[in-house]
């Protein structure tokens, strides 16, 4: 019974991988019997298992290259947890997505933008009009048919699955405002769609129009991110006249309990003066300014700080 369950899970996985269009497959299972039967090391005598074996063999032939590995049970804990689930909703949903081609079916319902290209790629027939024929030939060069589905070649991107115009709204909705949607707009949105591997005619135009109609984008996109006041550039005309002072974050304790570093940077030359200290206090800052700055570089014109308590006290 247990071996049947192992075979069933393998067959489910193979169907899933086939639906995804996988070409090369590595199968890991903790069932030594099943792996050895499929690799030919063991014979299959049980009548029921024979039927499973045949089905699994047939499915494995759909892939260009397959490898089966036996792994110890403790290394297969993730798969075990999935198998122990009382209801297998997750798998059901996955299979439904493939068995019910509600969104992604591009098979030739009449009146789709892909029909001409598909027809030409499948049969090589061109329209009688010379100009139309030339245009179609040029256009069709950007498309290929793989496993009965039309894909568009993209520059530096994977092949994009061509979908019907009426299904494009679902894709846009999911990518713009779905669970992982970032409310990307315009050209950004169309590029995200391409990166996710979908294409249809007038993708850019549709993406732009869609993002213009999103209610959340209407509410929040007009919030100004500009500062309330103008920015003022800080310039220094000669060396050591203007210093920027700041404490670096507390570091791990050194031998003399010195954790903080006071840093002074000259705005003109970017010269740096630094001193480690135990506590960021007003006294230590005053001593630093006197010994490290005034006594060595002269009285500065201005000191710039972040108004921390050590600087203001
Ligand atoms: Zn939006």
Automatic annotation (TrEMBL):
Q: Which CDD domains match?
A: RNase_HI_like
Cross-referenced Gene3D superfamilies, in alphabetical order? 1.10.340.70, Ribonuclease H-like superfamily/Ribonuclease H
> What are the transmembrane regions?
none
Using the record's annotation, list all stretches that form the RNase H type-1 domain. Answer: 1-88
Return the SUPFAM superfamilies for the record: Ribonuclease H-like
Tell me the InterPro entries matching this sequence: Integrase_cat-core (IPR001584), Integrase_H2C2 (IPR041588), RNaseH-like_sf (IPR012337), RNaseH_domain (IPR002156), RNaseH_sf (IPR036397)
Q: Which GO terms describe its biological process?
A: DNA integration
| GO-annotated molecular function | nucleic acid binding; RNA-DNA hybrid ribonuclease activity
Q: Which Pfam families match?
A: Integrase_H2C2, RVT_3
User: Which segments constitute the Integrase catalytic domain?
Assistant: 235-313
User: PANTHER family from the xrefs?
Assistant: RIBONUCLEASE H
Name used for this protein in its record = Uncharacterized protein
Q: Give the species.
A: Apostasia shenzhenica
